[in-house]
């Protein structure tokens, strides 16, 4: 038991919904208490013990139901789930902000919570004064704050404005300073709830590096986020909550697959494209990405296949096909050319299947899509271009994550792309 940092046993949390309760006077509380005791006494005397016991009204909602798990010391645990699944409620119970309605939650060790960045900041105080105020609220001693003061302001990148009231800060500066204070706590157990999406991309990478640094120090981390890439990067074990219940506890990759599988409609859209019906002259009839995991989700370093159905309506002798992989911000990260354009040359209208196999697709974890390019090689005349189709994701396991310096940003490494072409059928 000494290696257990957090133990949660059959925890449930119930909230009242719908009705707004007014405040009661002391007289009302006392009279209701006396009346309740009298009713219980009468019920016991007439042999109907428990018949008047409080029943759960229909206007109660269970945010958590029968949740049980344990976290070992030094473990990094991710928690995922849709909005309203109970993630933040669970962290509030562990932080002692609220008590469970039933069950037991034990935390063994000094705990710090990053549940809401900026809680405790006063707009009229300067950045310097708020560092001391917020650090004290979060449990840091004055000597600890003074020792880390320069490191905090350097991390937040607000040295020039440290003696300016924070009401004059931009929202980004405010959040950076708040996160910098919280990130320099030294607890044994750290609860993190959606606090990494602050500042610009460079600062987010710095935040991710700080969390990694905390993890390497052997501290226990509880990490809640909708950013599945961050979950995949930081954790090896993950809990999946749905409607207040724990439905999966296991490896992060499996948890992410379970989570994506909950949304069947979304999964059907990932990694695929179908030309709209009723629109003439669709040269790209369909496209599919065959990945190592579930549809549209690829694990770093595994094989991947990009498959396209080209409807050649007006045969040309110089057709050329290629496609790009682009980030969710539209940046091109790799380009695949079909050098043997003779392979798609045809004398009559046909639908041709083109496949591009990559044995080891090592693309930085994130969200991507495909942009296709069909043209005449001579004269460089575009026939049809489609942008942002077949969205897919790349994930990494723990072994792959250890090979990267996350501060450097995205990287791509491809090996031996292999093309395959087959004529499927004539176009009617």
Ordered list of secondary-structure elements with their pairings:
Elements: E1 4-16, H1 26-45, E2 60-72, E3 76-80, H2 87-94, E4 102-107, E5 111-114, H3 127-137, H4 142-156, H5 171-183, E6 189-193, H6 201-216, E7 220-224, H7 228-234, E8 237-242, E9 245-251, H8 252-262, H9 264-269, E10 272-274, E11 284-290, E12 297-299, E13 304-312, E14 319-327, E15 332-337, E16 350-358, E17 360-363, E18 366-376, E19 381-395, H10 398-401, E20 412-415, E21 418-426
Parallel strand pairs: 3-7, 3-8, 5-6, 6-7, 12-19
Antiparallel strand pairs: 1-2, 1-4, 8-9, 10-11, 11-13, 13-16, 14-15, 14-18, 16-21, 17-20, 18-19
Strands of the widest sheet, in order across it, are 5-6-7-3-8-9
- The total strand number stands at 21
CATH class of the largest domain: Alpha Beta
The oligomeric status of these chains comes to single chain
Low-confidence stretches: 48-57, 406-410
Structure description:
This protein is of the alpha+beta class. The strands form five sheets. It has a six-stranded mixed sheet, with helices on both faces. Strand 14 and strand 15 form a beta hairpin.
Give the tags.
single chain, 428 residues, alpha+beta, Rossmann fold, Coagulation Factor XIII, Chain A, domain 1, 3 domains, six-stranded mixed beta sheet, elongated
Short précis:
With 428 residues, the chain is of the alpha+beta class. The chain contains 10 helices and 21 strands.
